[in-house]
Amino acid sequence: MVDALPGDGHQATETSSLRALEVSSITVELGGRTILDDVGFSLAPGELTGLIGSNGAGKTTLLRVILGLQNPTGGSVRVASAGRERSVGYVPQKFVLDPDMPLRGRDLVALGIDGERLGLAWPSRARRALVQEMLDAVDASAFADARVGRLSGGEQQRILIAHALISRPKLLLLDEPLANLDLRSAREVVELLARIAREQRIAVLISAHEMNALLPVMDRVVYLANGHAACGTADEVVRSDVLTRLYGHPVEVLRVHGRVVVVAGPSEEAEPSHPHHHNHIDVF
Amino acid sequence: MSSVLHAIFEPGFFSSELTPAAIGGLVAIVAAGVGAFTVIRGQSFAGEALGDIGSAGGSSAYLVPVPAIWGFLAITVAAAGVMELIGIQRARGRDLATGIVLGFGFGLTALFLYLGTTTTSTTGAPIVILFGSLAEISSSYLPIVLALGGITAAILVALYRPLLLVSVSPELAAARGIPVRLIGAAYLIALAVAVALADLTIGAILSTALIVGPAATALRLTSRPAHAALAAAGIGLGCVWLGLLLAWDSYYWPHHGWPVSFFVVTLIMLVYLLAGVRRPNAARARRS
């Protein structure tokens, strides 16, 4: 793990019992390859954190470790328990549903209450009200009665977020929720997630290979590269010196028109001349 | 509708068709209910494959003195197990291997039917196995069908919620602690039993129609999963009963006594087409 700041003051002021998630020196080896190497960070309730890294950086693996679907080779994960309630909400990467599948957004949200139980769920006024409350919270009421498979990517994300939130988790994990969304939908989803984190005091962890959409709302960054992580605020982490140490290569962080671009460092002169062609370049 | 009049006013229909109506009705409800999930899960190919392979089981039952249902059941459940092990529940990717295995299944059917007709002189066996014989079904099947149908329906009701979640997204289901593989395997067993029942009633070749047809129609009519399963069961039941009625009446038609299976699959297709006609009005019903 690469600390953005020695003795990160933000973390030191809070006792560990207030943390929604604590990831301690996680190491994951798969097929002889080290995917994650000594990754550690913690999330506080009410904070929105970006899990940033290029494809293959280990973002999904890290989320799977937190969900308990992947056993780490070393290290530990502690999720704040919320009594009997499910404490982790999860929104998987965009899935493709058959447009004719007879499942309304409303039904999918209801499955968030107790979808893992055997037997039928008898409809009740309380269930319907809870589902409606969640649909309203994510502004999804307008399309809640349409088949999920026919909704747009942004609409599906809202339904999935409501599905994850309905069990009142303390921690919400989203795997690349902005991939495949147009810019406007992405901004709306990001603003929604920031609002949810703030109002419901939930720690929200969003994985993304592109950080610019998250920059305006992101409280903290967990930046993954080469299996290592750098954690802190965006200003602490997204810096040339920190990312150079993380990548193990000279890397330069440029700010172009209010957007952040990570390019190969000065040693490779040819590359930085095309920042406008890319929002964000990970250079190895 | 002189046809319906014949059946209702001639004496004998309700007494002689009681057993077929009871067995066919039960099978239709179970097969179509299971079928709703088959279609939701995109596994209609598995249903087709199980039905085809089932013909080998049904025909082998003519060689040993056991009711055909046990032959159908043994081979569909075994085939479901193999499918689960090697993961060919959908056509994509493994279509060649599956095609060869299905061909082999029919090869076995051909052999068993040949042996059956030469050794036991059951000349009607091919027709019965491949195309069903609901009208002549023995009432001794009723307890077996009742038990198997009950078990299948119970599995379906028990798995309802996890199965839906697994169908939506295996990742999402796994994150909730649902044993995705186990749920899929349990469902495949339920499908295998439903296929065996459908093989028995309308024949190995036509059984897919009873599994997939009513479900495909139901999907056009409703966008709620539970409603779809119930609608499929209702459509299946209606098609089988109306099919029996028409088959009974067909004794007064040219060539006397048309097969029930023909009427059942024809009705299933007609209902499916009708549901497509009314679809544009119901499409994308969005509130406010």
Write a concise synopsis of the structure shown:
The complex is a heterodimer of chains A (284) and B (288). Chain A has 284 residues and is an alpha/beta fold.
Keywords:
heterodimer; A: 284 residues; seven-stranded mixed beta sheet; three-stranded antiparallel beta sheet; 12 strands; disordered N terminus; disordered C terminus; B: mainly alpha
Low-confidence stretches of chain A: 1-16, 268-284
Q: Tell me, briefly, the overall form of chain A.
A: globular
Q: Give me the secondary-structure category of chain A.
A: alpha/beta
The rough form of chain B would be described as globular
Order of helices and strands of chain A: EHEEEHEEHHHEHEEEHHEE
Structural class of chain B: mainly alpha
| Strand composition percent of chain B | under 5%
Strand residues, percent of chain A: 25-35%
Number of helices of chain B: 14
Helix content of chain B: over 70%
The biggest chain-chain interface is: A-B, 36 and 37 residues
Give an overview of the whole structure.
- The complex is a heterodimer of chains A (284) and B (288).
- Chain A is 28% helix and 25% strand.
- Chain A has eight helices and twelve strands.
- In chain A, the strands form three sheets. Chain A has a seven-stranded mixed sheet with strand order 1-10-9-4-8-7-6, sandwiched between helices. A three-stranded antiparallel sheet of chain A has the order 3-2-5, with helices on one face.
- In chain A, helix 3 (105-114) packs across helix 4 and helix 4 packs across helix 5 (153-165).
- By secondary structure, chain B is mainly α.
- In chain B, 77% of the residues lie in helices and 0% in strands.
- The interface between A and B is large, with 36 and 37 residues.
